[in-house]
From TrEMBL:
<dbReference type="Pfam" id="PF01579">
    <property type="entry name" value="DUF19"/>
</dbReference>
<keyword id="KW-0732">Signal</keyword>
<feature type="domain" description="T20D4.11-like">
    <location>
        <begin position="22"/>
        <end position="178"/>
    </location>
</feature>
<protein>
    <recommendedName>
        <fullName>T20D4.11-like domain-containing protein</fullName>
    </recommendedName>
</protein>
<dbReference type="InterPro" id="IPR002542">
    <property type="entry name" value="T20D4.11-like_dom"/>
</dbReference>
<feature type="signal peptide">
    <location>
        <begin position="1"/>
        <end position="17"/>
    </location>
</feature>
């Protein structure tokens, strides 16, 4: 009796290390029946965009493969099962255009374009919370899919919601490489934020030139959201995403300050007549507008530059002058 109980627990634990090597009979099934299904998949494997009908056939073959391996309780079979499961998730992700769909849906969620999304934490980094959101918020999520995704994605979500939910919220066992569909789905909420952030970051130079700082506050908020979002994603940590540095978002606030300072610095450099400052030698050559980039050498002298800047831009320049002066280099 005791022996049986131990044995049953033993074989029902799906860990490779505990599983036995495959017997000759089991190996025969692996190489026979299961390999036949794998061959069926081979004829489909190709980079082209496939029709919905073909996508469905591929999913069906995939199910036969994983089912075939799943039924054999030995190490090689379970290893194959996991491998094809991941391969097939990848195929579905591509064939049903799920990346595009998820990006659009998270776009709508992030921008709060639809009311129903606000009660569900679809972007949570906590997988329990996320599962709960996608469970009780299924109909809200599906309404976004139905109105904003391709017909292939719509078909997939309608017939495979439960398996989608598992891929999304069950952490994979062996995941050092960060190349699974689960990982992409984890990163998905951050993609629209990243796009927004990068677009606005690009316009910063224009903002500084026009002295229009209205975007700065929004950029700071997007930065913080993006920072928080990317914490859970191995995709973003793998590429050393700079947003993850703590200071990045705080630094955005200094843009206006830096611009004020830089502007004063620049205009005084470009001033045609600075003969009123005794720290500037009377034979100093002033940069002409033609040679804007030429910095007069007296400007390497911080104290002299300070005197000139106070004279030209007012006493307020002295507030945090040293700090701003050393930051000047970074701008
Ligand atoms: C898809 O599978 C069905 C039934 O198994 C078959 O009749 C059809 O020809 C397949 N379509 C393609 C494009 O492979
Ligand atoms: C959301 O709800 C508010 C009132 O509750 C309504 O005024 C608004 O139009 C709704 N927005 C959308 C996108 O449905
Ligand atoms: C995730 O959320 C659940 C339920 O809200 C909570 O019990 C659990 O502690 C959270 N997990 C983490 C890692 O924060
Ligand atoms: C989503 O679909 C609705 C309804 O078709 C449309 O009004 C809206 O512009 C779409 N949103 C996006 C981000 O494509
Ligand atoms: C990421 O950052 C770490 C530490 O700063 C560095 O050692 C590593 O080379 C970086 N990796 C990439 C891909 O830039
Ligand atoms: C510069 O300013 C000094 C004193 O204010 C003045 O004498 C001189 O003519 C000015 N030079 C030019 C080129 O404007
Ligand atoms: C300016 O005069 C000083 C000495 O008074 C001299 O050392 C320096 O080289 C001169 N600079 C230029 C640009 O002529
Ligand atoms: C200087 O700064 C103070 C406080 O920071 C401000 O109230 C004042 O208006 C500033 N003066 C000028 C000329 O910008
Ligand atoms: C210099 O930096 C300080 C804080 O570091 C800031 O309060 C001040 O406004 C800055 N001054 C200018 C002219 O940008």
């Amino acid at each position: 009796m005791t022996k049986w109980a131990v044995f049953l627990i033993f074989i029902s634990t799906p860990i490779f290390a505990v599983l036995q090597d495959c017997s000759p009979e089991e190996s025969a099934i692996l190489q026979g029946k299961c390999s036949l299904h794998v061959n069926e998949l081979m004829i489909f494997t190709d980079d082209k965009e496939v029709s919905l009908e073909v996508a469905k056939n591929i999913s069906k073959v995939c199910q036969s493969i994983t089912k075939c391996y799943e039924d054999i309780q030995c190490a090689d079979a379970q290893r194959n099962k996991e491998m094809y499961e991941q391969k097939c998730q990848r195929l579905d992700y591509k064939n049903y255009l799920l990346k595009d769909c998820m990006t659009k849906v998270y776009d709508i969620i992030n921008d709060k374009l639809v009311n129903c999304t606000e009660q569900f934490d679809y972007s949570s980094n906590n997988l329990t919370t996320k599962r709960e959101a996608f469970t009780s918020g299924k109909s809200c999520f599906m309404s976004l899919v139905d109105t904003n995704c391709s017909s292939k994605s719509i078909a997939h979500f309608h017939s495979n919601y439960d398996s989608f939910l598992n891929i999304l919220t069950v952490p994979p066992a062996n995941n050092e490489k960060c190349n699974l569909v689960h990982d992409e789905l984890t990163a998905a909420p951050c993609i629209p934020l990243q796009t927004t952030f990068m677009a606005e970051e690009m316009s910063l130079v224009t903002i500084m030139l026009k002295r229009d700082f209205s975007v700065v506050k929004r950029l700071r908020r997007v930065c913080e959201q993006l920072q928080e979002c990317t914490v859970a994603s191995c995709f973003f940590s793998a590429m050393n995403f700079t947003i993850r540095n703590e200071d990045t978002c705080t630094n955005i606030d200094t843009i206006q300050r830096k611009t004020d300072f830089a502007e004063c610095h620049l205009t005084t450099i470009l001033k045609a007549n600075l003969t009123n400052y005794d720290c500037i030698p009377s034979n100093a050559t002033m940069p002409s507008f033609v040679k804007r980039t030429t910095k007069p050498n007296f400007y390497d002298d911080k104290e002299c530059a300070k005197k000139v800047m106070v004279g030209e831009c007012g006493q307020n320049v002295t507030i945090g002058f040293d700090e701003n002066w050393s930051r000047q280099v970074e701008l």
